[in-house]
């Protein structure tokens, strides 16, 4: 064994990267986690935001007990929204107790070399050789702005992830495009800061998640299905608790599940806050946008009958989600990207999150096309970390640096004893 080559390098220190790091450390692998812990959550989530997920579904993946969100928070009760700052603090606490010290640098380039080996260049100037690389870059590289808005200058259009504070919009008219939690909460936080938000959405009616049911849990489970990481119900229970099953579904079915499961909806606790301060333009889509001579923006909308209406504002915020695309992971060498097999725009993964290049794994949103919608949420981090590190451990003990690519194998010991 070449001591100058580490077992695994993890790109990213968000919930998925930290979870992989925790499992790799427990398994005794030589692991380096590159990134500032919880950076995206600290810098790209609005102050005053709350998590949509319940406490039991907000834990990072840990191979040992006692490191869940409820253990950190002293038993956070169901139905009490979790402030994003509290979740960030939990992630830092988890890192301190479970993860090899993350390195606050950046990965500039990942190249595939014979072996298989990976050469990873860091912003510090260091070059690292690794048998395996886990790409866990979160959602940041994949923010989606509709084409009708993308041509506007940055002074007039931004994505919801671009804003930690909204004070600069006080007294201004701001159009928020979208109907999901991000759009609804952005509109409310804008109003809280004294802005005049306009919520613009295709849906003719906003959807809201139900208040968590308390009491009569057994009867509720029989009638509505068990509670799980994606909510409640038997169908979504499979998507939440058995994502390995999703991988065997046809590609188009998986795509529909990712797009439509837990569609745009607001948390129950946000409903009363979306009051008369927020103007609603529902059942309309953006068909054109342009900068006006006075420096404002004109947005042309159209309803299902083809009737058009103009909206004028000082700024537009696209709360229009994230679309994973391998080509937008700039740190991957272009030649490496070209060699990856793909499912749509995402990498095609085997049963262990390994891509078509041996030793290269993807976790988080980029794995949703293979394992389904749970990979869009923190709740999927434990499953992903167990699978990846279980496979790394098994193949390295067998004397292979990565195993046979794209070939499903049986459950590892780590998975069986889950």
Describe the protein in words.
- Helices cover about 25% and strands about 20% of the residues.
- The chain has helices spanning about 15-25, 40-45, 70-75, 85-100, 145-150, 180-190, 215-225, 235-240, 245, 250-260, 335-340, 370, 380-395, 415; strands spanning about 5-10, 30-35, 105-115, 115-120, 125-135, 155-160, 175, 195-200, 225-230, 230, 280, 285-290, 295-305, 310-315, 315-320, 340-345, 345, 360.
- The protein contains 14 helices and 18 strands.
- It starts with a strand and ends with a helix.
- The protein is of the alpha/beta class and about 425 residues long.
- Residues about 400-418 have low confidence and may be disordered.
- It folds into two domains: about 5-140 and about 320-415, 3-Layer(bba) Sandwich (FAD/NAD(P)-binding domain); about 145-205 and about 265-320, FAD/NAD(P)-binding domain.
- It is globular and about 65 Å long.
- Strands 1, 2, 3, 4, 5 and 18 form a six-stranded mixed sheet that branches. A five-stranded parallel sheet has the order 6-15-7-8-11, with helices on one face. Strands 12-13-14 form a three-stranded antiparallel sheet, with no helix packed on it.
């Amino acid at each position: 064994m070449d001591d100058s080559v580490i077992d695994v390098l993890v790109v990213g220190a968000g919930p998925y990267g930290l979870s992989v790091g925790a499992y790799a450390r427990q398994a005794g692998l030589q692991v380096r986690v590159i990134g500032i812990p919880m950076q995206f959550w600290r810098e790209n989530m609005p102050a005053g935001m709350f998590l949509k997920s319940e406490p039991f579904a907000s834990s990072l993946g840990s191979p040992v007990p006692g490191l869940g969100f409820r253990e950190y928070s002293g038993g956070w009760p169901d139905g009490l929204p979790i402030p994003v700052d509290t979740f960030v603090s939990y992630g830092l606490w988890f890192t301190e107790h479970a993860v090899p010290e993350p390195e606050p640098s950046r990965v500039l380039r990942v190249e595939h070399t014979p072996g298989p080996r990976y050469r990873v260049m860091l912003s510090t100037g260091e070059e690292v050789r690794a048998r395996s690389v886990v790409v866990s870059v979160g959602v940041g590289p994949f923010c989606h702005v509709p084409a009708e808005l993308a041509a506007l200058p940055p002074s007039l259009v931004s994505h919801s992830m671009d804003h930690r504070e909204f004070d600069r919009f006080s007294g201004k008219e701001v159009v928020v495009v979208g109907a999901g939690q991000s759009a609804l909460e952005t509109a409310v936080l804008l109003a809280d800061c004294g802005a005049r938000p306009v919520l613009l959405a295709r849906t003719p009616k906003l959807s809201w998640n139900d208040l968590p049911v308390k009491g009569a849990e057994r009867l509720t489970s029989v009638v509505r299905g068990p509670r799980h990481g994606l909510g409640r119900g038997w169908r979504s229970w499979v998507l939440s608790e058995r994502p390995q099953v999703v991988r065997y579904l046809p590609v188009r079915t998986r795509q529909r599940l990712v797009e439509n499961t837990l569609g745009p909806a607001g948390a129950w606790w946000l409903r009363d806050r979306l009051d008369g301060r927020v103007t609603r333009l529902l059942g309309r889509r953006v068909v054109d946008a342009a900068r006006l001579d006075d420096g404002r923006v004109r947005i042309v909308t159209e309803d299902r009958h083809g009737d058009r209406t103009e909206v004028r504002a000082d700024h537009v915020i696209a709360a229009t989600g994230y679309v994973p695309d391998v080509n937008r992971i700039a740190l991957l060498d272009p030649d490496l990207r070209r060699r990856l097999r793909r499912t749509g725009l995402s990498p095609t993964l085997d049963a262990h999150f390994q891509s078509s290049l041996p030793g290269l794994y993807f976790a988080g949103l980029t794995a949703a096309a293979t394992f389904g919608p749970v990979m869009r949420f923190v709740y999927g981090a434990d499953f992903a970390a167990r699978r990846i590190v279980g496979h790394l451990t098994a193949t390295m003990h067998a004397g292979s640096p990565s195993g046979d690519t794209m070939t499903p194998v049986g459950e590892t010991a780590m998975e069986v004893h889950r």
